[in-house]
Amino acid sequence: MLVNDAATVGAVTLTVNSTFINSVQRNCGELLGTNKVKANLRRVAVYGTLKKGQSNHQILAGALYVGHCQLNQITLYDIGPYPGAKLRSSDGVDVEVYDVNAETFDRLDELEDYNAQAPALGLYDRRELETSFGAAWIYLYNPDVSGLDEIISGGWPRQIGGL
Prior knowledge:
The protein is of the alpha+beta class. It has helices at 2-32, 102-111; strands at 42-46, 64-71, 75-78, 83-86, 92-100, 124-131, 134-141, 149-151, 153-154. Helices cover 25% and strands 31% of the residues.
């Protein structure tokens, strides 16, 4: 009987917590005006200068950080001031995943020189890839990477001395 009571109490607690969380999200969404745009959010995975602590991260200032994971579908190439990704198998490249609004998504396209009319002509193309958090857009480097250093595991910038 004690187990049933504990389960009932646990279920009630979960219901209260779920109701409370949904209420807070709904009310905060109304205050911030995000309920209407939630359906317009796009999930992106970033691997270079857009990551936390990097030079272009401020573009993601209003984005919702979803989490960190590794992608085995891409290999990074060290271009110097930034990396480029190609659709090539790897041991796992570190990415950060964010939900962004349409305005931020457009800014990312601009930063990555994505050409919607002719994706192969821009500096980067973008594709949706599966992540631990669901499908996310990722920018893929268009130019040839022959002779560039590959990063097939970990991330960019490379960590020195295991730091």
